[in-house]
Design brief:
Layout (H helix, E strand, L loop, with lengths): L1 E6 L14 E2 L2 E2 H12 L4 E5 L3 H9 L19 H12 L7 E5 L8 H13 L4 E7 L8 E3 L5 E3 L16 E3 L3 E5 H6 L8 E5 L11 H16 L1
Helix pairs in contact: 1-4
């Protein structure tokens, strides 16, 4: 069985009620639920939450809430892997799970085709995880750090005179979803490792949403994409 597991706790502080805040006319979590539905890959789409209001919204858009997430897995410091492992353990009381896809609740640019492509990569390359990445818009080798007085220092001073086109391209996780085998999630294997494979997304479909500024930027990006 393949399941989509959407973590959505209720205690967001930087953007209050972030997981159900309206984005492009829908509670933002609804975009993740819809993409999972449209992918056609999942036997179950489950939201793991500690919050009754989030649970009600998720049900309204077609997700299951077969359990409420325990308090010890709902604080600011709980990592993703234990949350997904707990969901798998709980759901496997009913049936055997082979693959689980963690889909973040605040990923309004997520697309069903990308979920399918990453699943295909997982199977084709016989890996334990698969997830999307994108390129950095500026060479990370030319990055600088800045102190409180405004002074700067290069992270890689040896590349001060290196041409941008001669530097290796760098990628980062886009923060939308992670496919994994049930075994990998349950054993807590590292995602950013040789256990994983990736697909590449264009930068205009990527925006992490952690702050109000991120939210505003994502809304503007979404509006432009809808007008194209």
């Amino acid at each position: 069985m393949r399941v989509a597991i959407i973590p959505a706790r209720g205690g967001s502080k930087r953007i209050p009620r972030k997981n159900i805040k309206t984005f492009a006319g829908l509670p933002i979590i609804a975009h993740s639920i819809k993409a999972a539905q449209e992918s056609g890959l999942f036997d179950r789409i489950v939201v793991t939450t500690d919050d009754e209001e989030i649970a009600d919204v998720a049900r309204r858009y077609g997700a299951e809430i077969p359990f409420m997430r325990p308090k010890e897995l709902s604080d600011d410091h709980t990592a993703t892997i234990p949350v997904i492992a707990h969901a798998i353990q709980t759901l496997q009381n009913d049936s055997v799970i082979e693959y689980a896809c963690c889909i973040y609740a605040t990923a309004p640019f997520i697309r069903a085709e990308d979920i399918r492509d990453a699943h295909n990569a997982l199977i084709t390359h016989n890996k334990q995880y698969a997830f999307p990445v994108t390129t950095f818009p500026f060479p990370i080798q030319r990055g600088v750090k800045r102190d409180k007085e405004g002074n700067i220092e290069m992270f890689y001073p040896e590349h001060f005179a290196t041409r941008s086109q001669d530097l290796e391209e760098a990628y980062h996780d886009v923060g939308q979803f992670y496919w994994g085998t049930a075994e990998a999630w349950l054993e807590g294997r590292a995602i950013f490792s040789d256990a994983a494979t990736t697909i590449v997304l264009p930068r205009h479909l990527v925006q992490d949403i952690d702050t109000p500024e991120d939210w505003t930027r994502a809304e503007l990006m979404h509006k432009v994409l809808q007008e194209l």
